[in-house]
Amino acid sequence: ETGVTQTPRHLVMGMTNKKSLKCEQHLGHNAMYWYKQSAKKPLELMFVYNFKEQTENNSVPSRFSPECPNSSHLFLHLHTLQPEDSALYLCASSQGRGYTFGSGTRLTVV
Amino acid sequence: KNEVEQSPQNLTAQEGEFITINCSYSVGISALHWLQQHPGGGIVSLFMLSSGKKKHGRLIATINIQEKHSSLHITASHPRDSAVYICASVIGHSNYQLIWGAGTKLIIKP
After folding, report:
1. Which residue of A2, A10, A44, A99 is the best one to mutate when testing the B interface, meaning the one whose CB has the most B CBs within 10 A?
2. Is A103's CB within 8 Å of B40's CB?
3. Per-residue pLDDT tens over the stretch B1-57
4. What does the pLDDT look like over B46-85, one tens digit per residue?
5. How many CB pairs under 8 A join A and B?
6. Does B42 contact A102 at a Cβ distance shorter than 8 Å?
7. How far off is chain B from A107, nearest CA to CA, in Å?
8. Structural contact between residues B61 and B46, judged by C-beta atoms closer than 8 angstroms
9. Interatomic CA distance for residues B97 and B78, integer angstroms
10. What phi and psi, each to the nearest 5 degrees, are found at residue A90?
11. pLDDT tens digits, residue range A44-80?
12. How far apart are CA B76 and CA A100, in angstroms?
């Protein structure tokens, strides 16, 4: 356990479903991130939240919708996904230059 | 352009061998992370360093700021060290962002 908890660990969803990924940290970090890792590719930054405010959206399609209700929780709402969205979704938090990562959610879109 | 290059891309070695993974970056950074990702997906931060050398158990990380180069060494390698090792440079001095290397897949055979 790293201090950043992601649920669920695995998710299989159809293209018409709506689901949400959850990330939680109680490390007192002020920034939280969503990353996508597709097979054999480097991590891609999706969203950044600093003190609950979204500071970065890396041209992510609108079928991915982040929510940060407080500095400890981060959600990624998913709807009408495509098979190419199947990937490992990693949450991270940071304070200064130090980062902590969650274990990821392995998402399969069928 | 900010780039992080890792080598080798893949490395297979016998148990007990001394392992070196290299990382080069193209622009000035405020720190560099070495991270480990096991097949399950979760990422663990091994080191964050901005100068010199750090050691933790059988792992040693060094960085040469002038040459923009860092190395991760594993002494007395063991099959449980098999994982993907990723370096990521930290840029910025107030809003820290990570620039990711592509990772080195390490397999240690018994």
Report:
1. A99
2. yes
3. 558 999 999 999 999 999 999 999 987 777 899 999 988 778 888 999 989 999 999
4. 999 989 999 999 999 999 988 999 999 999 999 999 999 9
5. 48
6. yes
7. 12
8. yes
9. 32
10. -110, 135
11. 889 999 877 777 777 899 999 999 999 899 999 999 9
12. 27
pLDDT confidence of A98, banded at 50, 70, 90? Answer: confident
Residues on chain A touching B40 (C-beta within 8 angstroms): 103
How far away is chain A from the Cα of B94, in angstroms, using its nearest Cα?
8
Contact assignment for B100 to A104 by CB distance below 8 Å: no
The sign of the dihedral angle between the CA atoms of B63, B47, A88, A30 is: negative
Cis peptide before A8 (omega within 30 of 0): yes
Which 3 state secondary structure label does DSSP give A90? Answer: strand
